[in-house]
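Incident review: delayed structure delivery

Summary: a single-chain prediction request sat in the queue longer than the usual turnaround. Root cause was a stuck worker, restarted by the on-call engineer. No data loss occurred. The affected request and its eventual output are reproduced below so the record is complete for anyone auditing the incident later.

Affected input:
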Amino acid sequence: MKVWLKKLIYSDDIVGALGIFLVLLVVFFSVMTPHFFSLMNFNSIIGNIPAMAILCLGLTFVVLVGDLDLSLGSILGITAILAVFFFKVMHFPLWLNLISCVVIGGIFGAFNGAIVTKIGINSIITTLGTMALIRGLTYWIAMDVDAMQVGRITDPAFLNFGRYYFPEKSRLIPITLVYLVILYGASALFLNHTSFGRQIYAVGSNEATARLAGINVKRVRFVCFIIAGMLSAFGGLVLVAQLGLGEAYTGQNMILEVVTAVVLGGVLLTGGKGRLTGVIIAVLILAVIRNGMVHLEQVTDISFYWRDVAKGVILLLAIGLYSVRKSFNAKRLRTRQ
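Output delivered after worker restart:
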């Protein structure tokens, strides 16, 4: 246990420790609740994580360069409403709907990136403002989708985009998981095996040194905001296709959990360090906790409000872990010098 804790706190690679923690959580909830350990329940957990995990992939790009984008949940939300709007009002075919929403997500990301890199406003302040702006636009658009809060999707092709399974009869692998695996693989290859990916880590590690090395720091940060916006938009498309509806409130409360997953996954908020694998495992950890708490409520007197308490505790632990690792890395750097 001590070795695992030291690895989780001090190691640059905490993926193994997170994996052990995930297994322990599964064992705990399997022992405490009778229906948690089942293929149907695991299928439910896996089927519900892709939208949030895709959002986490997007945020990881921004955090790796030392920025933070709090508007990604709102970008996901407006995409959900726009998908319904394009389907019900504009009568877009599926392919045009998907492309339009992803491009719009990229435009929102570019807007954030331009304010942060060109004007020089702090990314947290910038994205708090755009978060409110996008929410207002979402409510305004929702009014044209027959209802203030709900717009339903009935197109079979669009619903299959989020509800199809492989193989179709046994319903083992949701198509949304396929999207996540593809995006995770593409993002990992991009970050670890391209010159631009190495520039992202360089900018996050030391912006001044990266600039001296000839890296266009502003361009790298700007592109990361665009990537985050596009991934968030795709996450919104996945979510609305799964649910079959777009709500004006979709995605509003997701950003807290997304930040928690990214930090818990080992990505330093100061940038320059972090792996996508750790982030995905952290998403699974949060999903298992959320699902396990639901099962605990059914067999105990625990109130459903404890779900939020659990999320808050995990966030505080993640921030504490981040602070300790940041201090340890700084001390190790001074020792080497």
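Verification: Residues 2-336 form a domain with the ABC transporter involved in vitamin B12 uptake, BtuC fold (CATH 1.10.3470).
Action items: add queue-age alerting; document worker restart procedure.
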